[in-house]
Amino acid sequence: VAFTGFQLFRRAPGETDYRALTAVLAPTTVGFRDVPLVNGGEYSYRLSFVFLSGLGSHPAEDIASPGAAMPWMIELDGGELIQLTPDNRHVQVRRGGYGRATDVAANPVNGDVWVTDEGSGRVVIFQAGTGVTVSVPGLQRPIAVAVDPHNNATAWVCDAGRGRVYHVRRDGQVDALSIGPLNQPVDAAVDPFNGFVWICELGADRVRQYDDAAQFQWACTVAGPSRVAVDSTTREGWVTSFENGTVTRVSPSGQVLGTFSGFVAPLGVAVDTRRGRIWIADPYAGRVTALHRDGQEEFRVTG
User: Which residues, other chains included, contact 135 with Cβ-Cβ below 8 Å and sequence gap of 6+?
Assistant: First the structure.
């Protein structure tokens, strides 16, 4: 059977049938850029072989939703920084060379992506706007990073091996003042209102807060703190405890406002400020739980 090329068909939002998007493309074609599209719309595609006798009967199909987002992720203890498509359906770019990546954070202001590479004892700053990569070596166990988009695009890096939290600039320079000594600092979060940094001190069963000049503010007891996120509206902190199966709500001044159970081993936490929703990743339970700001469960995503 004589193969002559490919033809691409598309079904746009609101359409019921596929329409031809291209004429017959040459057999050497490796891609086609479909523009302009509406962000957030769901577009369905079919790619068919074309033969002298006509279209093939088994097209390849896929769906895409364009958008302005640029999602980044790592696989736990993996060796790559991965950029996803805006709809999170596909891997767009893989950037290798990491010994054992443990955390990733993206700066929403300038697009910098920070990765803690525990396996190589360093932090890597990928400046996505220019493609420049900056490596900050000499760390022992860098396991978490929190970006500070309003403080000259800096970040706070938790080094659990040395028991310190370092303030690092995007050019790789490390400030002389650091926070410590601490007993296993495993996570940090920045209050976007004032730049104060919250730290989970796992080995001491407490959460600490420091100002943007690394000056101590307060500490409160939280058993086995694992991760922390700050609500930019209420300025409260939400702290997970993987070991104890709890989530704790902490006031901006360091008072425990409530501890919530019903989890197996909660780890990741993120705050949707606009909706007043706190997301809790509970990996051993195979679910994500959404809480209201008062700690009451809103819904679960299981499976």
Answer: 122, 123, 124, 125, 172
How far is 195 from 150, CA to CA, in rounded Å? 7
Is the pTM value of this prediction over 0.85? yes
Order across the sheet with 112-117: list the strands.
72-73, 78-84, 91-106, 112-117, 122-127, 132-136
Cis preceding linkage at 225, omega within 30 = no
Work out the burial of residue 156: count CB atoms within 10 Å of its CB; fewer than 13 is exposed, 13-18 middle, 19 or more buried. Answer: buried
> How many other β-carbons are positioned within 10 Å of the β-carbon of residue 77?
12
Q: Look up residue 188 and give its two tokens.
A: 């940090």
Give 145's Cβ-side CA count (13 Å radius). 32
pLDDT, averaged per 10 consecutive residues of the chain (303 residues), comes to 93 97 96 94 97 94 94 94 96 96 95 97 95 96 93 93 97 93 98 95 98 96 98 97 98 98 97 97 97 97 96
H/E stretch holding 260? strand 256-260
- Which residues, listed in sequence order, are joined to residue 64 by a DSSP beta bridge? 43
Query: What type of residue is 3?
Result: F
Q: Which residues pair with 302 in a beta bridge?
A: 287
> In this predicted model, what pLDDT tens digit does every residue of 186-221 receive, in sequence order?
999 999 899 999 999 999 999 999 999 999 999 999
Token pair recorded at residue 185: 């600092």
Please provide residue 264's backbone torsions phi and psi, each rounded to the nearest 5 degrees. Answer: -90, -60
